Amino acid sequence: MSESRISVGLLSYETLVHAVAGAIGSVTAMSVFYPLDTARIRLQVDESRKAMSTPIILAEIAKEEGILSLYRGWFPVISSLCCSNFVYFYTFNTLKKVMVSDRSRPGKDLLMGFISGAVNVLLTTPMWVVNTRLKLQGAKFRNEDFHQTHYKGIFGQNPLNTHLFVKIIASEGVGTLWNGTLPSLVLVFNPAVQFMFYEAMKRKAGHGGKKISSLEIFLIGAMAKAIATTATYPLQTVQAILRFGQYKSDGKGGLLGSLRNVVYLLMDRIKRHGLLGLYKGLEAKLLQTVLTAALMFVVYEKITTATFRLMGIQKKLKH
């Protein structure tokens, strides 16, 4: 792997197009299906909430906290998601240029997905910790052990909230900003598997130069995400609880979280609610992530195709 090839991948205009398209696609899709994410995280964190159906939990939140509460924390989540997907798509497509010399294979797609996910987790976890706190502030919990939180800052409710960063570091330590990193690193498996299946199904659908329709992209993206989400959901629940920071455990959080905390939370969840308790909120998560991923891939493919077509026209004009 030569240095020139690595630099070409890092500085490629095509890589930047993929990164921007991925970021725009994810922001668009998340904005459309955001209330489903609100239901998902409330079900994951608030164990004492008995409502299991997504429509019921959304109705409860709207009735008790107002309709706008369904979009609480929208800006920090969207900002974090934009940065996160930019990093992921940029890294993935850089690796694609560097590592794929002939034709793509599922094994290589999986490896590139793991590396891209690890880079993304280490760089963006502090933003996700902050937006989880903002998303849940003012929430009316059924779990009496949880207390409402209220944050403010000169930038308002966004992932660069100065007040919240300073408050977390001062009261809980700088390592808290990386709470949930251990399950997040394990959860790199999620987007890696998603991209492996997506790339494989897309290659099969487009075999022989066949044009892939938007509906096919939507269905491929949905199936890939459904497989990845179902396989990793228990760890996503642990990740959400660790980021929120209000749980009772023998262990302590650190820069990479703690394997002891992860195991403790998984076992505690099973003890309290049985094995199915690990999948509480899965319905909302599947609805949200599957639909979001499907729409994201459609927007992503449309933007990249249109941009590269325009680039091709400009190159012809220059010649």
In short:
The chain has about 325 residues and is an all-alpha fold.
Could you list some keywords that capture this structure?
disordered C terminus; 12 helices; Mitochondrial carrier fold; 319 residues; globular
Textual characterization of the structure:
The protein has 319 residues and is an all-alpha fold. The protein has one domain: Mitochondrial carrier domain (Mitochondrial carrier fold). It has helices spanning 3-10, 13-32, 34-45, 54-65, 74-99, 106-136, 162-172, 181-186, 189-205, 214-244, 259-273, 282-318. Residues 153-160, 253-257 and 315-319 have low confidence and may be disordered.
Secondary structure layout:
Layout lengths: L2 H8 L2 H20 L1 H12 L8 H12 L8 H26 L6 H31 L25 H11 L8 H6 L2 H17 L8 H31 L14 H15 L8 H37 L1
Please give the radius of gyration in angstroms: 20 Å
The proportion of residues in beta strands is: under 5%
Q: So, CATH architecture?
A: Alpha/alpha barrel
> Approximately how much helix is present in the residues?
over 70%
Give the total of beta strands. Answer: 0
Low-confidence stretches: 153-160, 253-257, 315-319
Largest beta-sheet characterization? none
Shape: globular
Mean pLDDT: 77
- The CATH homologous superfamily is called Mitochondrial carrier domain
Number of domains: 1
Structural class: mainly alpha
